[in-house]
Amino acid sequence: MGKVDVNKTINNVVSFYKEVYEGKNLKVKFEFGNKDLFIYTDSSFMNEIFSQILNNAITYSANGTILLKLETETKGIIKYAVFSIKDNGIGICESKINLIFEDFRQVSEGCTREYDGLGLGLAFVKKIVELHNGEITVESKENLGSLFKIKLELKKENTKQRAF
Predict the structure, then answer these.
(1) To which CATH superfamily is domain 2-154 assigned?
(2) pLDDT tops 80 at residue 79
(3) pTM for the whole thing?
(4) How far apart are CA 5 and CA 8, in angstroms?
(5) Do residues 1 and 35 make contact, with C-beta atoms less than 8 angstroms apart?
(6) Using H for helix, E for strand and C for coil, what is the string for 41-59?
(7) CB neighbours (10 Å) of residue 126?
(8) Cβ-count burial of 69 within 10 angstroms (0-12 exposed, 13-18 middle, 19+ buried)?
């Protein structure tokens, strides 16, 4: 567990997927309000969160731009890093949004589904985020895209945290 540069982690993930999203003629746009955000955790957890969310945005978008935002939010004395990713992909029917966070579940299931995967990525992300006392939310409209937001508490290095 150590000091993880959120901006650097996101940039590394975007670079890793560059060939994939450019191959689909997608663009990735950044809006980072605060470039110096650090979370004290295991870097592999942060990498996994951003990889899963970006990979889904790329997978379910056929064209257009994926917008990444990194901001801060303060509630009382607690400061949060808020990461959001907006795509213009296939979207999710409102009645099925909660399914995407369940193990082995996808919105389109069965033998006729279009997209590969086990349905574990978002369930795993949600568990990591919740272990960090954070939250993940999604807003989506079918055929219009999705907006995922992940809020993680920014803690000082000497703050006691649960070991993961």
Answers:
(1) Histidine kinase-like ATPase, C-terminal domain (3.30.565.10)
(2) yes
(3) 0.81
(4) 5
(5) no
(6) ECHHHHHHHHHHHHHHHHH
(7) 20
(8) middle
Query: Over the stretch 104-145, which tens digit does the pLDDT of each residue have?
Result: 445 444 333 454 444 567 888 999 898 888 999 999 999 899
- What is the residue type of 1? M
Domain ranges of the chain: 2-154
CB-CB neighbours of 88 under 10 Å: 19
Q: Is pLDDT at 40 greater than 90 in this prediction?
A: no
Element of type H or E holding 84: strand 78-86
Whole-number pLDDT of residue 158: 45
Number of alpha helices (DSSP H) and beta strands (DSSP E) in the chain = 3, 7
Pick the closest to residue 154 from 86, 70, 52 (CA basis): 70
**β-bridge mates for residue 72, sequence order:** 81
